[in-house]
Specification:
Layout (H helix, E strand, L loop, with lengths): L7 H89 L2 H4 L26 H18 L7 H9 L8 E7 L2 E7 L7 E7 L4 E7 L21
Antiparallel strand pairs: 1-2, 2-3, 3-4
Helix pairs in contact: 1-3
């Protein structure tokens, strides 16, 4: 069989074409491999980030729950501290009102009879001699603290009472009287009946003592209004 000899220029061109085609094929193969690998890498990254996002959400929820628990514990602790301080105050006042001391203390009138024309939830009960003495002590403390002070809102009155070591849980808001704030203080300890009604009267307050039955809230005792400041 006779061999066909190509001229040298044609042979060189043919070999160059083969090399170019081989290079193009290699580049296409690399491009295809990159396109297949890229989605796999993206999917792996997404799958790896999902548990991290869930863990972050769990940590955030746990942190919020811990913060709420801490706030509740702080409020509860504050209430207990306030109550403990009040009981200490009540104990000191009670000791000063024992019979051997009471002879030098003036008399505090118990709450008046409720207005019979109005609905009555509970009648006030008489105060014992010791309770009358304690009532006067509390009245003098409150009158002195509020003397000359503007107390036009219930919030101001409540702040003044808590500043005197009366716990917020023992301070009860009552309907305003002639546009002035009124609060009642539950000073009962154990089987006692002492309660106070504090009414703002302009640059001072009026403080009235009364006896609250054990089975009723101090807000359920109906009292007749006194327009004049009580004398001590």
């Amino acid at each position: 069989m006779r061999s066909i000899l190509l001229p040298k220029p044609l042979l060189t061109a043919a070999l160059g074409s083969v090399v170019v085609l081989a290079a193009v094929g290699t580049q296409s193969a690399h491009a295809a491999t990159a396109q297949v690998t890229a989605p796999r890498a993206s999917a792996t990254t997404t799958a790896a980030s999902a548990p991290s996002a869930r863990a972050s959400a769990v940590r955030a929820s746990a942190g919020a729950s811990a913060a709420r628990t801490a706030r509740a514990a702080t409020v509860l602790t504050s209430a207990r501290v306030a109550e403990a301080r009040f009981l200490e105050l009540a104990n000191l006042i009670g000791q000063s009102c024992e019979p051997r001391v009471f002879s030098a203390v003036g008399h505090v009138t118990s709450g008046p009879t409720p207005d019979s024309t109005q609905p009555v939830l509970s009648d006030p009960v008489p105060l014992t001699t010791t309770e009358q003495c304690a009532a006067q002590r509390h009245q003098l403390r409150i009158l002195k603290a509020f003397a000359g002070k503007e107390t036009a809102t219930y919030e101001q009155m409540r702040a003044g009472l808590t500043g005197l070591e009366y716990p917020g849980a023992r301070i009860h808001r009552m309907p305003n009287f002639a546009g002035k704030p009124v609060a009642r203080l539950d000073l009962r300890v154990g089987a006692e009946h002492l309660a106070l009604e504090v009414t703002y009267i302009g640059h001072g307050v009026m403080v009235e003592a009364f006896g609250a039955p054990q089975d009723f809230s101090v807000t359920d005792v109906r009292l007749k209004r006194h327009l004049d400041r009580p004398t001590s």
